[in-house]
Every structure is written in structure tokens, then in C-alpha cells.
Specification:
The chain has 244 residues and is α/β, with parallel strands linked by helices. The chain contains 7 helices and 13 strands.
């Protein structure tokens, strides 16, 4: 009998923010698979479970192992931080099951995304139309990212930015700021959240002109405001236009 694959979003990392369905799926699984950092976040809550971890950039190998275990009749949870369908593992898992003509069932269980968790810590910066973009050019060519940045800035979207800068990948971050400054006011508010809802959480509000000097890494989510973004009692808010 074939097993089952859950692709589970564990949210920002603090299990107070994991949904009940995610906790139930992990509890019902024979084995939990994921990137080693995320496995460490989950382990304390499921001490009697079997775990299988792997390094970053091993996503295909991870999914192949999950499929192999499910074909053997195991119920397997493949975990992603945030939401698994937003730059997570859901898409690749579905693709691999299809590529192997398997009839193993895949159930995607959502989680609180990095955008949502960062926004809640900053205030309410996503109250109106917004877009999400990753600055990682490992899988998406920089030329494509660049075109999207121009379009989003011209359209005056609030922009949530994932993977803004790593130790070795810094140019996209600085190039993105230059592009945004072509269309946005330098005083546009920018929210910076590092390690959202995890140990060493840090929250900062700056502006687009000073963003280049901020501490930004792969554990950072940026929320860049639009022309209607304001700071209200120290909170970043996208003003929708309600008559108060």
C-alpha cells in the first residue's frame, strides 16, 4: 500500500504560529524530512519521530527520498519554513511525483509566510495591493528579476522582498535599490525584519535612501512601501483611504 506525502508549512519557526493541521500532519507522519535548520526547529516538539535532514541546495534529492519512502508505504512530512507554496517545497514535490508517474498522494498544508509574519511585526504594511519578489538569481535569471522590479516599482506596489542578500550574493540587493529609486521617493518607508518570530528577532524601519546601509541577510524579509505607506505610532501602515 502506498504512503502519503504531506508538504507542510511550519510558519516562521516559533511553533505558536504553526497551524493545527500542520501539527497534526507532523504528528501522524512516520518520518519528517527537511532542510537541517528547519528540522532543528521542529525536533523539540516531536521527540519520538524519525527525522531526515539535508543541506541547502539539495531540494531535488530531498524530494526523491521523500517519494521513495512514500512508495514504501510511509507517511512522510516534507517541511518548509513559512508557506510551502511560496518559494517552498510544494511545487518541486508535485513535479517529482508526476515525473516518476507515481500515484502517491501529495497534500500541501499552508503556513504563515515570511511576508505575513514580517508584516505583523512591522504593523500593517500589506493592507493594500502588494507583490512578493525574491532577489535570489540561483534559479531565476537576474535579467528577469530586474524587469519585474521595474514593473512593480512603476506600478507603485508595496513590495515584499525575500532572499535580499547573502554573504556571496550582494550585487542584486544594491542593484534593486537603484532600480526602485528611479520610481519611488527616497523617503519611502522600508521595514526590515531579521529572524522573524525566532531567536535573535530584530525589527527596524528605515527609508529607501538608507536601505543600502542596513544590516540585511538571508534571514531578512524586507517590506518596501508605496506612495501611500505611512508610519503611524511607530508602525508601518499601508493607508487604504478609510474615512476615520
Amino acid at each position: 500500500m502506498k504512503g502519503l506525502i504531506y508538504v507542510v508549512g511550519i510558519g516562521p519557526g516559533d511553533f505558536d504560529y504553526a497551524c493545527n493541521k500542520a501539527i497534526s500532519a507532523l504528528g501522524n507522519s512516520d518520518i519528517i524530512v527537511g532542510y537541517k535548520t528547519y528540522i532543528e526547529l521542529v525536533k523539540p516538539h516531536f521527540e519520538n519521530k524519525n527525522f531526515l535532514s539535508s543541506a541547502m541546495k539539495k531540494e531535488v534529492d530531498r524530494c526523491l527520498e521523500v517519494l521513495k519512502l512514500a512508495e514504501q508505504g510511509k507517511t512522510v512530512s516534507l517541511i518548509s519554513s513559512g508557506d510551502p507554496g511560496i518559494y517552498g517545497m510544494a511545487g518541486i514535490m508535485i513535479e517529482i511525483v508526476a515525473a516518476h508517474n507515481s500515484d502517491v498522494q501529495v497534500e500541501v498544508i499552508p503556513g504563515i509566510s515570511a511576508s505575513a509574519s514580517a508584516a505583523s511585526l512591522l504593523g500593517a504594511p500589506l493592507m493594500n495591493d502588494f507583490a512578493v519578489i525574491s532577489l535570489s538569481n540561483l534559479l531565476t535569471p537576474w535579467e528577469t528579476i530586474e524587469k519585474r522590479l521595474h514593473a512593480l516599482a512603476q506600478a507603485d506596489f508595496v513590495i515584499s522582498v525575500y532572499n535580499p542578500k547573502s554573504k556571496t550574493r550582494t550585487d542584486p540587493f544594491y542593484n534593486a535599490i537603484e532600480i526602485l529609486l528611479k520610481y519611488k521617493d527616497p523617503k519611502t518607508p522600508v521595514g526590515i525584519v531579521r529572524n522573524a518570530m525566532r531567536e535573535n528577532q530584530e525589527i527596524e524601519i528605515t527609508d529607501l535612501a538608507n536601505l543600502k546601509d542596513a544590516e540585511v541577510n538571508m534571514f531578512t524579509t524586507l517590506i518596501i512601501g508605496n506612495s501611500n505607506t505611512d508610519i503611524v505610532n511607530g508602525k508601518m501602515v499601508a493607508i487604504r483611504g478609510y474615512k476615520l
